[in-house]
Design goal:
Strand content: 5-15%
CATH class: Mainly Alpha
Oligomer: single chain
Order of helices and strands: HHEEH
Number of domains: 1
Helix content: over 70%
Distance between the termini: 44 Å
Number of helices: 3
Largest sheet: 2 strands, antiparallel
CATH topology: Helix Hairpins
């Protein structure tokens, strides 16, 4: 129970001022985080849509190539045309939010001459299928470069939103109630003191 004194009333008002400032800062931070989130989510969604489109087309072409070339040829081409993909993972910081960023080394889409087999002996369906699957790998790695940042920004936006709501919906109303209660108590006490003093003066005058 807070003692209803003027000192405590001033302390509560000062605390309310600090909390109000904190709410304003948190709201500004949340807006900045949302802008950053929207800037990142656009290319992320484009890459996902690109993957869906290419994957469907690649499967169709692969089925056609499988019917023309056969399983044995496709498996042999897989072995001779395999390659390693270079990826670096680094820590980054955006507005105090730490996340992992991928740096990938391409290009991932190769020309037929770079695939280590005689493409003149294969069908266009196989070449188109390989091309599309390489585009998918490229798009998936592009998504990976955004995914960590999007996840961390989303978590930070939720955390800031929860803190803002706690301050606005719990802390500030509690402080307002305490300030009002103490102000009313002090006001009543001052009125009582005024009436006692007035009554005392009236009694003195009558004497």
């Amino acid at each position: 129970m807070i003692q209803p004194t003027r000192t405590n009333l001033l302390l509560l008002k000062e605390k309310r001022r600090h909390v109000t400032n904190s709410v304003a800062i948190l709201k500004a931070r949340r807006q900045a985080l949302i802008r950053e989130f929207l800037d990142v989510i656009a290319p992320f969604l484009r890459s996902r849509d690109e993957i869906k489109t290419h994957y469907s087309q690649a499967l169709d072409e692969l089925h056609l190539a499988h019917g023309h070339e056969g399983t044995d040829l496709l498996e042999s081409l897989e072995a001779i045309s395999a390659r390693e993909v270079g990826v670096d993972v680094q820590q980054r910081n955006a507005m105090g939010v730490k996340y992992r960023e991928l740096t990938v080394y391409g290009p991932f889409v190769r020309t037929p001459d770079e695939r280590n087999y005689d493409y003149a002996a294969t069908t266009p369906h196989l070449e188109e299928s390989i091309y599309l699957f390489e585009k998918i790998v490229e798009a998936m790695l592009e998504i990976a470069t955004f995914e960590s940042k999007i996840k961390r920004l989303g978590e930070e936006i939720l955390r800031v939103t929860r803190r803002t709501r706690v301050l606005e919906e719990r802390v500030l109303p509690t402080l307002q109630g305490q300030i009002k209660s103490i102000a009313q108590y002090i006001g009543e006490r001052e009125r009582e003191a005024y009436f006692r003093l007035k009554k005392f003066k009236d009694v003195r005058q009558q004497r």
